[in-house]
Write a structure and sequence with these properties.
The complex is a heterodimer of chains A (213) and B (110). With 213 residues, chain A is mainly α. Chain A has helices spanning 11-19, 26-47, 53-84, 97-108, 110-114, 118-139, 148-160, 167-199, and one strand at residues 88-89. Helices cover 57% and strands 17% of the residues of chain B. In chain B, a hairpin with a 2-residue loop joins strand 2 (62-69) and strand 3 (72-79). Chain B contains six helices and three strands, in the order αααβααββα. The chains are: A mainly alpha (213), B alpha+beta (110).
Chain lengths: 213, 110
């Protein structure tokens, strides 16, 4: 095989990709965000009193999704990235943005019971929902501008919580923004995946390389 | 006080080479990375990457670890303490060069 070399990538991009390799594995973000969409859709159906076949289908999809996520998706995605781009042992890693978003939304429901107050609730939600995506944009500037989409969605979700006054409304808000935020995270995850594909473009040599030292 | 050119001359040549610098920067951002990852990241050929890693290993800047995942052999590269220190010193030298050339005025051409 004729081995060819491509130009070296920008050093800042090298540092970004290596230090956030797991976070940039967009398919992982997409898998988690897909779960958010399914949960949100189920909650919306429940709040709109759709209890027939449609709800049963959503529940079945949610169960299947959860089971697949636990048993197959995570391992397959890890194996996919390891085999396609290689392995990196990260210094630190935490839960994905979709998971922290779901936790934030669920935790935020308590603001109603605790009588936190509208302004404080909205501000807390801005931090919880838009904080991490916004930080991603700033930290990885200009490579991950696509995280502006979840940032804006997070701010909109936080602002619309100002109209929520009852637990019923909070449930509907939860469902709607699980879907909206999940959809934006699906997009952000896809662009992260593309960034990884662009930066870690396999050279001709990679196909044969296993152990070469 | 040293001139920018003296600082340039004092740069560690082993680290200054672009491919090796990319490898060292990559390894400084993680615990360890495998051969395939470094190959994809740098876009080097297998031979060139092996050669650069060997040089870095001989200089004690990088540690090579061979392991198996199932039946698949995997070669990990890891930055040593010496490597971390060399990279830190390199960036300090680059900063000195940068600070030095700030005072240089460009030649005026008509």
């Amino acid at each position: 095989m004729n081995e060819t070399e491509r130009p070296l990538p920008d050093i800042a991009l090298v540092h970004l990709v290596v230090s956030h390799y797991r976070e940039l594995q967009g398919l992982r973000t997409m898998a988690d965000a897909g779960g958010m969409v399914v949960i949100g859709a189920g909650l919306c159906l429940l709040r709109f009193n759709v209890t027939g076949l449609l709800f049963a289908v959503d529940l079945a999809v949610l169960c299947a999704y959860g089971w697949l996520w636990w048993k197959w998706t995570q391992h397959s995605i890890t194996a996919y990235y390891a085999n396609r781009f290689g392995r990196v042992a990260a210094k630190t890693w935490g839960p994905s943005v979709p998971i922290t978003t779901v936790i934030a939304i669920e935790f935020g429901q308590s603001f109603i019971n605790w009588h936190v107050g509208t302004t404080a609730s909205v501000l807390l939600f801005v931090v919880m929902l838009a904080g991490r995506p916004a930080w991603t944009v700033v930290r990885d500037w200009p490579h991950r501008l696509h995280w502006l989409l979840p940032t804006v969605a997070g701010i909109v979700a936080a602002l619309s919580f100002a109209d929520v006054v009852s637990r019923e409304q909070a449930g509907l808000w939860w469902g709607q923004f699980d879907v909206v935020l999940g959809a934006t995270l699906l997009v952000a995850g896809w662009f992260d995946h593309l960034l990884l594909c662009k930066t870690l473009k396999p050279s001709d040599a990679t196909a044969e390389a296993t152990d070469n030292l | 006080m040293n001139t920018p050119f003296e600082h340039l001359q004092s740069l560690n040549r082993l680290v200054h080479e672009p491919a090796r610098l990319a490898i060292l920067v990559a390894l400084s951002a993680c615990e360890k990375a495998d051969f395939i990852f470094l190959l994809n990241l740098t876009g080097l050929t297998k031979g060139n990457l092996s050669s650069h890693l060997s040089k870095l290993e001989q200089a004690g800047l990088v540690e090579i670890e061979k392991t198996y995942e199932g039946r698949m052999p995997i070669t990990y590269a890891k930055l040593t303490l010496e490597g971390k220190e060399a990279l830190k010193e390199y960036w300090k030298s680059v900063d000195k060069v940068r600070a030095g050339i700030k005072h240089l005025k460009p030649l005026r051409t008509t």
